[in-house]
């Protein structure tokens, strides 16, 4: 058993809800106990007792801060923020620092499948069901699944095509040893985007929730609305053609692209700020 004392603001539910790890657990007693149902350390139990977190059935103590999101402390990254936005982001941290980033560098393939199957559907019902079905029938190697046994949606049909690309899954799996290597992650982002069916939003969501590179920022409608309302920015979603050859740092359209603008303005806090915008858009929190 692993035990960790929490001496800082933290909300388990609001941390796991926006994460693509959400389908990997069953939740008991109003999110006070999480049981891992797929991937690394399947069967592990995370238990929240007042200011203590207990990890059962998993001997790897490194996973606890990642899965609970406690590895990410927003306040210590404020120096990444452009000075003109500092006041607003300081207020955001003051109000929402109990919300963290739940990631799993130990489960890159599962994270990718979760992200890929979330496109244009209800993540917290349909995607969760698909992940549970995959875990139930193909627990050891999700890339060996015949997804058409689960359903016939276009997301599942496209995943079936990708499953034949063994090199792709090998690259995704390499996150395990490169999850804090930003240079590697930018290179992997370009490779992912070069594949059919994978756009910048999918690649960024995958990298945000499978690595410690918290600058990656999925461009969704909630964040577009958030940046327009609070920063007066009329930004657009990333252009795949530019993403294939540039990082956001040298991209000529970063000033107009929501992902590029956010990374340049907020650095390693960018992915967390997008997560807060998502929760606001889903009416889980109010600003």
Distance between the termini: 38 Å
**Series of H and E elements:** EHEEEEHHHHHHHHHHHH
For the secondary structure, the number of strands is 5
Number of helices: 13
Strand order of the largest sheet: 1-5-4-3-2
Radius of gyration: 18 Å
Report on this structure:
- By secondary structure, this protein is α+β, with helices and mostly antiparallel strands.
- Among the domains are: 2-71; 108-210, Endonuclease III, domain 1.
- It is 43% helix and 8% strand.
- It has helices at 12-16, 63-68, 86-96, 108-116, 123-137, 154-162, 166-173, 182-193, 200-210, 221-231, 240-243, 258-266, 270-281; strands spanning 2-5, 25-28, 33-36, 45-49, 52-56.
- The protein has a five-stranded antiparallel β-sheet with strand order 1-5-4-3-2, with no helix packed on it.
- α4 (108-116) packs antiparallel against α9, α8 packs antiparallel against α9 (200-210) and α10 crosses α13.
- The longest helix is centred in the middle third of the chain and has 15 residues, at 123-137.
- The protein is globular, with a radius of gyration of 18 Å.
- The mean pLDDT is 96.
């Amino acid at each position: 058993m692993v035990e960790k004392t929490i001496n800082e603001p933290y909300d388990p539910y609001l941390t796991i809800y926006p994460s693509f790890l959400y389908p990997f657990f069953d939740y008991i007693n109003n999110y006070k106990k999480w049981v891992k149902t797929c991937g690394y350390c399947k069967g592990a139990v995370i238990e929240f007792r007042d200011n203590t977190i207990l990890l059962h059935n998993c001997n790897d103590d490194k996973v606890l801060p990642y899965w609970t999101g406690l590895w990410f402390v927003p306040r210590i990254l404020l120096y990444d923020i452009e000075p003109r936005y500092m006041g607003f982001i300081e207020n955001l941290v003051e109000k929402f620092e109990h919300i963290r980033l739940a990631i799993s560098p130990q489960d890159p393939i599962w994270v990718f499948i979760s992200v890929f199957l979330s496109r244009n559907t209800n993540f917290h019902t349909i995607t969760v069901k698909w992940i549970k079905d995959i875990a139930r029938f193909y627990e050891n190697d999700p890339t060996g699944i015949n997804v058409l046994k689960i359903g016939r949606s276009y997301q599942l049909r496209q995943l079936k095509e990708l499953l034949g690309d063994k090199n792709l899954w090998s690259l995704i799996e390499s996150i395990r040893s490169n999850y804090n290597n930003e240079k590697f992650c930018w290179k992997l982002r370009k490779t992912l985007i070069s594949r059919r069916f994978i756009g910048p939003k999918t690649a960024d969501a995958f990298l945000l929730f499978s690595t410690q590179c918290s600058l990656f920022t999925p461009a969704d409608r909630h964040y577009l609305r958030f940046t327009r309302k609070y920063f007066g920015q009329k930004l657009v979603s990333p252009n795949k053609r530019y993403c294939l050859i540039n990082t956001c740092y040298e991209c000529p359209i970063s000033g107009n692209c929501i992902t590029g603008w956010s990374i340049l303005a907020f650095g390693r806090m960018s992915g967390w700020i997008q997560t807060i915008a998502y929760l606001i858009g889903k009416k889980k929190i109010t600003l």
